[in-house]
Specification:
Length: 483
Amino acid sequence: MSIDVNNALTQHIFNNMPIHLIYIREFRLMDRASVKDHLQVLFSEETIQQRCKDQPDDSRETVITSLLNEHARYAILSHRWLNKEPTYQEMLMSHKPPDAGFLKLKQFCEAASKYGIEFAWSDTCCIDKASSSELDESIRSMYRWYQNAAICLTFLADTTAIDNLQQDEWFTRGWTLQELLAPKKVKFFGKGWVPLTNLEVDLDKDMVYERRSRGESVENPVTAQMLDRLASATGIDSFDLVSFYPGSSDVPKRMVWAAKRRVTRGEDRAYSLMGMFGVSLSIAYGEGADQAFFRLMDAIIQISEDPAVLDWAGMPAFTGHPSQMLPSLPDCYLGYTDSMSGYSVSFGKEPFALTNRGLRIAMLILPITVANVTPYNTVVPQATFHCRSSKWIEDTVVHAEGPFTVSARNTYAIGIWGSGFIDGGSHRCFGCLLTRHGRLPGIYQSDGWSKMVSRSFIVLTPSGELINPDLTSLHPHLETIYV
């Protein structure tokens, strides 16, 4: 094998394919080196030269890439875990246990082989979970592995027809969200591994996206029906289903998708979302759900300039960090709607950032007074605050639910950090409730503010200069705080 072919094959297998794959014909595991040994016979110099003759308009590099796409590919399984799923260690045994887990795995491999694919991957048995390094790499790479698969075979064990697929428990699990969004081609199977449609591929996302970008409708009515059912089951519109791209945009909307799903290990609320947001975290089971989600949000903030990441309500993540500006879980974004989204500009000259003193952020801080408060021993404490009209904001009454306490010794304010959004033709902006016990002396006079817990969004109606803010004139009125 020539050097360029060897390098291309090595790079493709070791960078784009999972650590272990099932060799379908023999129903056994192969590592990457074994996969390369198996495939290299298909990449002889004679084969390359003949393909170059057959495709004179293509470069040698293009020919090699096309061969990689034809042969170095795998099918991937998306499913809901049940009892007695096969493990990596059991797959190494010569005698496989005849239980339901292995039956499902064999049916998956049989279905994959019908696509002319030699290799398959399942999260149950293709990860050596006894190896912390392999587990770490696998979880970090999971989104890309689903994205790189030739096809994703999705097994909906409780479903018998497209019309009732939204009742399947698969739609309630945390990890299956990225397994829906990442693959480029998807085929759905129902109970007993019966295909839910007569199509070879139920959802070819690139094809659907290309047709829609040309203003054309989805060609196949079955695919259109499948998209409608998936959108109904997930709350994700069909555009996002076919054109999703990982990154730090639309954080609240994506968190709402995740909030409707559950995981067995609390840390997986964060780990299962890494790929969707284009960030990477070290895997540390045992750190706790709050700490893991805090690290996820920190990683997102490091690559995002969109202040909408702070548009949440509910309990903050309880960690050893002093900041209370980061949420504890995706559920904190529930209630965020498409009408609240849009391009929002952070007010500060410097980007907001997490520091060892809290989240450093520039805010317009507006004083508020306590209008009413429920008794201290109320199950869900409530308070009403009054923010008087100014050149920044209309006269506003804010109703908030705790848990919190209100003290006459404290001062209160609303902090606004971004330009907001347009809702039904009216301008709105998000804010947060702040409290401070007096004013601290010394150089850090802007310190001392802490964010109050509110179970509902603090949404305000700006006026005057805040509707279309001139950031240059706004800057003198901002206060950089650590909260």
